[in-house]
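Q&A FORM
Asked by: J.P.
Topic: structure of CHAP domain-containing protein

PROVIDED:
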Amino acid sequence: MGRGVWVGALVSALVWGGAAQAANKATAAKKARPAVQLADRALWRAKSWVGMTTLAKMSSTVSDDCSGMTRLAFQQRRLDLLPDDVLPEENGVTAIHRKARALGMLTETPKPGALVFFKNTFDRNRDGLINDGLTHIGIVERVGTDGTVTFVHKSGGLVKRSRFNLAQPEARKDAKGQVINDWLRRKGKKTRGYLAGELVAGFASVDERWRSPEPRLASAKLAVKGDARTARR
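REPLIED BY: S.T.
REPLY: Here is the structure written out as tokens.
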């Protein structure tokens, strides 16, 4: 082998070796990069809707209210926050809460991307009393160092941010004059107004366990097609 050929082969080996090493590093970096979680994607969607008065521009398949906004934020293929068997007496919030309980996803700790449930936010049964059960839902955006939680929800015809503080649920502002609880139930003829922290009913995490399994029929069709391809060989 001539010297020129040998040098060319060496350079080629070095170039291809460097390319392979770079490709391996890129693959390793891709594997190390954390996947976008369901909750992160849902929260990003909800935040992008703040200020909007209707969900109709995004979808006509969900109700234009708090539960509809939350469902739409998390909606993906085979993933719906509502259970398949919504009961006649349930509203969207109670149905979602029931599914969260069945999946073992209820929690007492607020985290970004978690669902937050509220009770008695309006007079649902129109009797003037505070006995309306679960009536509102939102998505936790962040938890401040002082415990004040910011959440995104649809209320009063608007997607917006509001706050609550579980350590001081009855305080509108803290010692520095900062708002830590927004109003969530208006004053009625028989009842006073209520702050968000007073009406929190709990939280729920959302992950892949909420996703429905692949339909058996689709799996069966794929198996049949695979057998047919094998037979043709």
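FOLLOW-UP: Confidence is low (pLDDT under 50) at residues 29-33, 228-233.
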